[in-house]
Amino acid sequence: MDALRRAEEKKGSPPYVLEIEREWSSMIPMLAGFFLMMGLQELQKNDECLSDINNERWSLRPELQSTKENPTDFMLFSDRFAQVFPTYELDDMCRIRPGPDTPRVNFTDLKELLLSKDLSRNEELSWVSPMSLRFLDGQDIIG
Predict the structure, then answer these.
(1) Domain ranges for the chain
(2) pLDDT score for 43
């Protein structure tokens, strides 16, 4: 966090990862970038720093946090997660889990639909797209 703070003070604006790396003295230079990204992402996951949408620029300055009154590129992890995945929740291990409003699908119904040779049922798959994630509804699929 000190390297991020020093880089931000030196630049006067949110620094890129390489600018943070210059401020961080590592005993193992080849691994410095890797460890730095891991550290920044851990800080982000804990909502201890802000980042832009591509995780390229980072900041510790709370005044840069995006709000309705002051929209910026910088958000806390929890704010960005809520914006991108509004119906999902994170569990204690930061795994994405369905929230109460998350669309779900029954495995048996989906399997039956996918194995069906009846082309008139294709409309039932209209919800399928890269941005339409669905969890199974929790029905036992083993027994």
Answers:
(1) 2-84, 104-136
(2) 92
